[in-house]
Amino acid sequence: MITIRRFSTRVALWLAVVWAIAYYLGRTWGSTRQERTRRLPGDGLVPNPAMVGDHAITINATPDDVWPWLAQMGWHRGGWYTYRWVDRLLFPQNPASAERILPEFQELHVGDRIPDGPPERGCFFVVEELRAGHHLVLRSTTHLPPQLVNKKGVSMNWTWAFVIEPEGEARTRFHFRWRGEARPLWLRLIYQALVMPADFVMGRSMCLGLKKRVEASRGRSTSEPATVRRA
After folding, report:
1. Does the reported pTM lie above 0.85?
2. Residues 172-228: pLDDT tens digits?
3. What is the set of domains in the chain, with CATH numbers?
4. Which of 20, 123, 152, 202 has the fewest CB atoms inside 10 Å of its own CB, making it the most exposed?
5. Which of 156, 155, 174, 128 is nearest to 51 (CA)?
6. Angle, nearest 10°, between helix axes 185-217 and 4-28?
7. How buried is residue 229: exposed, middle or buried, by Cβ count under 10 Å (0-12/13-18/19+)?
8. First vs last Cα of the chain: how many Å apart?
9. How many CB atoms lie within 10 A of CB 105?
10. How many CB atoms lie within 10 A of CB 12?
11. CA 133: distance to chain centroid?
C-alpha cells in the first residue's frame, strides 16, 4: 500500500520532471543549436542575461510577407498572435489578435512605444532596432509586478528580437529570441522559475500563430503541421 509520504514524493518528482521539460522547451522550442548560439540584433542590450529563450519556425512565405505582421504587434494593435484561450485565462483585457494586416499600424520607427497592456499598468516595449523585412528588436524595463514598481534596488531589462530571413524559395525562417535580467536575486529566481517554463506555451503559440496568419493571408493551407527544426 502506498503511504501518503511515498505518494507525495512521487507527485513531487513527477512535477519536477514536468517543470524541467517545460523549462527546457521554454528556452529552445523549434530552434537549432546553431540558431541558439549565433549572435542576433539586440543581444548587446542585455549583455549578461540571466534568462535566454530561442524559438524558431519556418513560414511558407517570403520575409516581405511576414514583416507587416511583425510591424503591427502589440496590445490593442495586432496583438501577439498567442493562443486565445491563454489570453482569456491570464490576460482577459487582451482583445483577440488580428487576422489581417492592419494598415494603420505599419509605420514603425526606433523609439516608438509598443503597449503590452492597459495604460494604467504602465507596461510597454520600446522599439530599439529595426530593419524592415529583416529584424525588429523591442526592449522593456517596465514589466515588473505593480507592487515592485519604483522600489529601490528592483529592476528588469528584457528584450524581444524577431529576425526573419529567407530560406529557399518563398520560405522564411522566423527566429524569436528573448533575453532578460532582473534584480535583486530573489526576483531573478522567480522569473527563472515561472517565466521560462511558461514561455513554452507563450513563445510557441506566438510562432504558430504568426505562421498560421501569414500563410492564410497568402491563401496557403493552414492544416499542415508547422515546420519545426529540432536540435
Report:
1. yes
2. 999 999 999 999 999 989 888 888 888 889 999 999 999 999 999 987 443 444 444
3. 31-217 (3.30.530.20)
4. 152
5. 156
6. 60
7. middle
8. 42
9. 17
10. 10
11. 19
